[in-house]
Design a protein that fits this description.
CATH architecture of the largest domain in chain A: Up-down Bundle
Distance between the termini of chain B: 57 Å
CATH class of chain B: Mainly Alpha
Largest sheet of chain B: none
Keywords (chain A): Cell membrane, Membrane, Transmembrane, Transmembrane helix
Strand order of the largest sheet of chain A: 1-2
Shape of chain B: elongated
Protein name (chain A): Fumarate reductase subunit C
CATH superfamily of chain B: Fumarate reductase/succinate dehydrogenase, transmembrane subunit
CATH superfamily of the largest domain in chain A: Fumarate reductase/succinate dehydrogenase, transmembrane subunit
Number of helices of chain A: 4
Helix content of chain B: over 70%
Keywords (chain B): Cell membrane, Membrane, Transmembrane, Transmembrane helix
CATH topology of chain B: 3 helical TM bundles of succinate and fumarate reductases
Number of strands of chain A: 2
InterPro entries (chain A): Fumarate_red_C, SQR/QFR_C/D
Helix content of chain A: over 70%
Radius of gyration of chain A: 22 Å
GO cellular component, one term (chain B): membrane
CATH architecture of chain B: Up-down Bundle
Number of domains of chain B: 1
Largest sheet of chain A: 2 strands, antiparallel
Oligomer: heterodimer
CATH topology of the largest domain in chain A: 3 helical TM bundles of succinate and fumarate reductases
Distance between the termini of chain A: 87 Å
């Protein structure tokens, strides 16, 4: 009698098998960039609290070529995070029923992106006018 | 029959994850643009991020609340997502991983609050 040798489906690199899984892993990976940006801001707040010279050192550091490149990668991944967040939103929200019809997915996604564009524009406008002292 | 009535604390972490995810989806990219690229590109004057103006910003309650919400919610969003993705890359997400992920966010929360409250 031979020993039973059940087939176990190998799971290493499972997400490389399908473009859908690759996309899933990339949008989960945006979390590292959100984390990096949060830590960058936290470092800024800590430097600000410790005085003017530390704050100026922080600003010089974040203006360096390497940090601009890293921040550009963070910027792109933030965009991608926002896009996928609203793309997935129809599946993460409870069903929204309007006059007996379930609100369809593209409408939720587009509404989310429109709100993001409006909120971002408003933020830029507020900071712009604050900085210009209007 | 024994019924497990122990409450789970998952909704709290999920709520922080959701709030951070929504906030970063709404204004995350614009925030990075403003804080990192607006001055080099000449959209904002360099004085916008001078010590005097940034320190002044933290003197307002709204300024403090804004910075606190951004940093803390982004942190909790990211660690929750990373923790739950460990399984996908074949790492068993046990108590150690939980402590490391949520511990980082917790320490970040305390540090942010401490620094903001120190600036009176």
């Amino acid at each position: 009698m031979s020993a039973r040798k059940p087939y176990i489906r190998p799971m290493t690199g499972w997400w490389r098998r399908d473009p859908f899984f690759v996309e899933y892993m990339v949008h989960e990976g945006t979390a590292f960039f959100v984390l990096a940006y949060a830590l960058e801001l936290l470092a800024g707040v800590l430097c600000l609290a410790s005085g003017e010279s530390t704050w100026n050192a922080y600003r010089a550091f974040s203006g360096s070529a390497v940090m601009l490149l890293i921040n550009f990668a963070i910027l792109l991944m933030m965009f991608y995070h926002g896009y996928t967040w609203f793309k997935i939103m129809p599946r993460t929200l409870p069903p929204i029923i309007i006059s007996g019809q379930r609100l369809n997915a593209p409408i939720i996604t587009i509404a989310g992106i429109v709100v993001a564009v409006l909120a971002s524009s408003l933020l830029l406008a507020v900071i712009y006018f604050l900085a210009r002292g209007v | 029959m024994k019924v497990n009535l122990k409450r789970t604390n998952e909704p709290i972490f999920w709520l922080l994850f959701g709030a951070g995810g929504m906030l970063s989806a709404l204004v995350g990219a614009m925030l990075v643009f403003i804080t990192c690229f607006a001055v080099p590109l000449g959209i904002l004057p360099a004085e916008a991020f001078s010590y005097a103006s940034m320190h002044g910003f933290t003197q307002y309650f709204m300024g403090k609340a804004f910075l606190f919400a951004i940093i803390v919610l982004f942190l909790w969003h990211a660690v929750h997502r990373i923790f739950h993705s460990l399984h996908d890359v074949g790492i068993h997400a046990g108590p150690l991983a939980r402590w490391l992920c949520y511990g980082l966010a917790f320490m970040g929360t305390v540090a942010t609050a401490g620094a903001l409250l120190a600036m009176v």
